[in-house]
Write a structure and sequence with these properties.
The chain is mainly beta. It has three helices and 25 strands. The chain has three domains: 81 residues, Beta Barrel (Lipocalin), CATH 2.40.128; 127 residues, Beta Barrel (Lipocalin), CATH 2.40.128; 155 residues, Beta Barrel (Lipocalin). It starts with a helix and ends with a strand.
Length: 427
């Protein structure tokens, strides 16, 4: 009688026998093998991270032996910036002060970089040093990083809180990738596409240049129905499942494209009360805005270091705030409340009904009379006016460390609001 193991071996032998001698094929995975990425190796002292700034690809090198860093834009190339860093309160302070930037690093796994002062948009990047094969199929979930200057173009409808997901599989070498089941509210084009992984200078990139799928249609300078002719589309997947992608056009007269930041879907539902009781470091990112509702003045980009969890959580909520004066040696504020709400019943780690509550001293929420807003105004326990508005959270726990990607729209930022995102890593 054939056992399950012998039947599997016979099936695998038959598949391999039918293939050309030199070809590479997707094989039936061992049913006893763990589905997902290979077991990651320990982080090295020096790591190179690749990712996007929405738009544009960047690299970021962190060397903990010499305490040095280098960051450099790739798509829209300018000179690289190098120097020394010091670790402080969960951040890498680049240079003697914050003018050269900050970073939050999960060593050898992912990095969130602000390459400059507080008016510089963030970069999310991961280290992919080789083309590795995936066992079975895995889903990656992500938010669309806000691209460029926001123009309040949503009219009477609510602004898009952009998120998506895609399922990936590979051949036995990890050089041929297939992406399918592309889902979300910012994806466009075919639901499946192919990619190829190549390695250069010990860094790997999964390229799908020429494909018509868009992972984040919130492009700058305008939303598009298909990639522009010169678009370069790249994906990087870190060893523990962090997911970064950039689609941008280096031939365009001004920066054109968009990026995403995400994580592999957890294998089971997260325990929300555990997520909210941790301490996090990361970045608050509010994108620049153009002339707004009823002539509201434009606003500049704000990218500030932020901390969550320094005060006690309550249920599915956690409290945090930015560091005053862009100085992580000071005590972070505690005036932003992130409420996760219910986790999606189908996709682990997705919280599509989350909310953010912020202070609204100018009562911009209440004074906005246009369309699209679902924000509410109230008073907090101290009697200050607050504004609460929807958010979407993509969460994961690679190697038992939570990470949260939050996308929202801050109706308290000005009359008419501004896009707001949080990038948070458990400490």
């Amino acid at each position: 009688m054939l056992t399950l193991a012998s039947l599997h071996a016979l099936l695998l032998f038959t598949i391999l026998l039918g293939c050309g001698g030199g070809s590479t094929t997707l094989v039936v995975p061992n049913p006893d093998a763990t589905v997902g990425l290979p077991t990651p190796s320990a982080a090295s002292a020096s790591n190179t991270y690749s990712g996007g700034q929405s738009p544009g690809a960047w690299t970021f090198i962190v060397n903990h032996t010499s305490n040095t860093y280098t960051y450099r834009p790739i798509t829209y190339s300018t000179a690289s910036t190098s120097g020394t860093f010091q670790s402080a309160h969960g951040f890498l302070q680049l240079g003697a002060d914050s003018s050269a930037g900050y970073a939050v690093e999960v060593p050898g796994r992912a990095a969130i970089l602000r390459p400059g002062d507080s008016t510089t948009p963030p970069i999310f990047a991961v280290p992919q040093t080789q083309c590795y094969a995936i066992t079975g199929r895995v889903r990656f979930q992500y938010i669309g990083m806000q691209a460029g200057t926001f123009s309040n173009s949503f009219g009477g409808s609510a602004p898009t809180l952009g998120y998506g997901s895609v399922v990936a599989s590979t051949d036995t070498t990890g050089k041929s990738w297939q992406f399918q089941s592309l889902q979300g509210n910012i994806v466009i084009g075919p639901g499946s596409f192919n990619g190829s992984c190549a390695t250069s200078n010990d860094q790997a990139t999964i390229s799908f240049t020429g494909q018509q799928s868009i992972l984040n249609l919130l492009w700058t300078p305008n939303q598009v129905e298909a990639p522009t002719a010169g678009t370069q589309s790249n994906i990087w997947i870190g060893p523990s499942g962090f997911f970064a992608s950039d689609q941008s056009d280096p031939t365009a007269s001004s920066p054109t494209g968009a990026s995403v930041a995400g994580i592999i879907e957890p294998t089971s539902a997260l325990t929300t009360s555990s997520v909210t009781t941790q301490q996090y470091a990361g970045f608050f990112y509010q994108s620049a805005t153009a002339l707004g509702y009823n002539g509201t003045s434009p606003t500049i980009t704000i990218t500030s270091p932020i901390a969550f969890g320094q005060t006690a959580s309550s249920g599915t909520s956690m409290t945090g705030g930015i560091y005053p004066n862009d100085d992580v040696s000071q005590t972070p504020e505690a005036n932003i409340v992130l409420t996760l709400g219910a986790q999606d019943a189908t996709y682990n780690g997705l919280y599509s009904s989350a909310t953010l509550t912020v202070l609204d001293p100018n009562q911009n929420c209440a004074n906005y009379t246009g369309g699209g807003s679902t924000a509410t105004t109230s008073l907090n326990a101290q009697g200050y006016v607050t504004c609460t508005f929807p958010a979407i959270v993509v969460a994961g726990n690679p190697e038992n460390k939570y990470v949260l990607f939050v996308t929202s729209y801050n109706w308290a930022a000005r009359i008419g609001g501004a896009p707001l995102q949080l990038y948070l890593v458990q400490q």
